[in-house]
Structures are given as C-alpha cells and as structure tokens.
Write a structure and sequence with these properties.
Layout: H1 11-54
Length: 55
C-alpha cells in the first residue's frame, strides 16, 4: 500500500468497487455453472436409475 499517494482521489473507491463487482460476478457465474452441472447430472442419474429399474 505504498502507491496510494499518486491515486488519492475518489477514483480509488470506484475502482475497488468495480474490482469487487467483477469478483462477485465471476464467483456467481462459477457457482451457477456448478449448480447447472449438478442439476444435469442428477437428472441423468434419475433417468438412468429409472431405466435400470424398468429392465
């Protein structure tokens, strides 16, 4: 935290907010991707179990 003297205006909180927003967006997308993958796998597994029970 030594380069704060050159950027002592109110742009630092804005950039920090943008960085936090980007991190939150990335984590949201990765979590949503995981949820979608898990949902697909559970659907496939339920269909597979139903098929095995049917035979």
């Amino acid at each position: 935290m030594r380069d704060t003297s050159c950027q002592h205006t109110d742009r630092a909180p804005a950039s920090y907010r943008q960085q936090a927003y980007n991190i939150a967006k990335k984590s949201y997308h990765s979590v949503r991707h995981l949820i979608i993958e898990f949902w697909r796998f559970s659907n496939y597994y339920a269909e597979y179990k139903a098929r095995m029970r049917g035979q």
